[in-house]
Write a structure and sequence with these properties.
The chain has 201 residues and is mostly helical. It has one domain. The protein contains nine helices and no strands. α2 packs across α8 and α7 crosses α8. It is globular. The protein starts with 13 loop residues before the first helix and ends with a helix. The relative contact order is 0.20.
Length: 201
């Protein structure tokens, strides 16, 4: 049975959030490839659920005072393309610590803005799990899973295509993660999760 503890609202200011992240140990070089991949997938899940795009991400950067680090669509695209799983050769492979922190804060800011929708989706997931139904049988989760899987397949370069069941499980896991990143201290949770999972991704 799926049980998810729901975080409450409220969060510190953008400045104190940035300071929170700077006080956490910086990941080592060997971990960055996985961190870049995880960040991009979390944003992909948020996009698939909410329908937001680059405009919302750039607006979040302005809200957080991060426009110098993520100034425009091209810069944002290059940061997303730093995910080594991405198709295409136009992006760069480097993502520095400050840029990664910026993407973490932007992700959590957008997750908080869409917290009601995220909560609704997770509650629905709990309900279908309790009644032994498939998530695809509900409109909200079905649309989210389809959008996530389609976008993943469009954007990611894979020698062997990932099975739909595996992509569905990844989408649902990221959905639950988003709930925790939308609450108080979500930026710390996400940053620590990135570091913790980077060696096991």
């Amino acid at each position: 049975m799926l049980k998810v503890m729901h975080p409450a609202a409220n969060s510190p200011t953008p400045t104190s959030q940035w300071e929170d992240l700077t006080q956490i140990t910086t990941p080592g070089v060997v971990e960055w490839t996985n961190i870049k991949t995880q960040l991009d997938l979390i944003l992909l899940a948020l996009e698939a659920l909410t329908g937001i795009g680059s405009e919302a991400m750039l607006a979040a950067a302005i809200d957080l005072g991060l426009e110098s680090k993520v100034p425009d669509r091209v810069a944002l695209w290059r940061l997303r393309q730093s995910n080594p799983m991405r198709k295409g050769q136009g992006g760069r492979k480097k993502l520095d610590v400050e840029e990664a922190r910026s993407l973490v804060l932007i992700t959590c800011h957008l997750a908080k803005q869409n917290q009601e929708l995220i909560r609704r989706a997770v509650s629905l997931l709990e309900q279908v799990a309790e009644s032994d139904r498939e998530p695809h049988q509900t409109e909200l989760l079905g649309d989210y899973i389809d959008e996530f899987c389609n976008t993943y397949q469009e954007r990611m370069e894979e020698e062997v295509p990932t099975a739909i069941d595996s992509l569905t499980n990844l989408a649902l896991k990221l959905l639950i993660d988003l709930l925790f990143y939308s609450g108080p201290g979500g930026h710390r949770r996400l940053w620590l999760a990135l570091i913790d999972r980077s060696t096991n991704f």
